[in-house]
Amino acid sequence: MISLGLMSGTSMDGIDAALIETDGEFNIKRLAHESLSYGNLSKSEILEQTTLLHADLIAKLLLNTKNKIDIIGYHGQTTYHNPAEKKSIQIGDPQYLANKFKLPVVFNFRQNDIDHGGQGAPLAPLYHQALMIQAGLDNMAVVNIGGIANISILTKNKILAGFDPGPGNILIDKFVQAKSDQKYDQDGQFAKQGQIDQKVLDVLFEQTIPGYYEKNPPKSLDINNIIYPEILNSLNLHDGCATLAAFTAKIIAKDIPRTIKHIVICGGGANNPAILNSLKNYLPDCSIKTADSMGWSNTYMEAELMAWLAVRSVKKLPLSLPETTGVSEPVTGGEIFYPKS
Length: 341
Prior knowledge:
Elements: E1 2-8, E2 14-22, E3 28-37, H1 43-63, E4 71-82, E5 87-91, H2 94-101, E6 105-107, H3 111-115, H4 125-134, E7 140-145, E8 148-154, E9 159-167, H5 170-179, H6 198-207, H7 237-254, E10 262-266, H8 273-282, E11 287-290, H9 301-314, H10 322-325, E12 335-337
Parallel strand pairs: 1-4, 4-6, 7-10, 10-11
Antiparallel strand pairs: 1-2, 2-3, 4-5, 6-12, 7-8, 8-9
């Protein structure tokens, strides 16, 4: 099937779209991709216009491809995630998209997992395993560093774990917005000019999500769980970015089993040399590569994931496992919205 996946992450900086051909298992072929930046839109404007913005991006991609699309995987914009309350809210109007583009749209990927006792996240480990197997590899961790980081720890025979270790870029983004007129530290330009403040680094572990880092997986995060410590205000722009980049890397490194020797990084953090260099310092015995260098994609991995999950949803294949979300058994998910005249 040819599937179009849409992803707007917790950083709320824009939408990514990816077109793939896949059987929902180990055959994955990349066909096209597009992005739409939110630019200067406010958070309230983004939330009000989410569906229309996604529609604009679909239309843009359709103009640039001759492929006949079979299905759309639409994640929507997460506004709240609390598995303890059995809630994960993604806003958006899948019926509108189905009607507009005359295609079935799969939406609400997380709720069935939560209804069966899972965290509803992360949903990426099965896709990461499929990419690894397609590439003929084994014993790997794939780390997506978006607003929140998530880790998949994989062998070709078993997914060992999948979970959110902690903040990815969200604290860096907030700090940059507080200290400058920029929205994020593009390519780690600020961090590379700064020095890591060890005292602040230690405090971040104590204050950002008290009690979370010591919890064993499965575990998942909402950005609203993350506290912005006041001590960050004492740092200048460069030192703060350097310290927060090291913090993100240290969070990830502490949760990588020492049996894993190969790590692939995707998401916005893959474009931040300060995070990558800190990871190499914390994990000197590991080979650390970006998804781009693997022939995958730093930017479009999660949009590809939604396209792949949409096909799995149609085929009633599992989207999550006990090892990834803590769900009681492997479960499928997603609701399919068909066009109405």
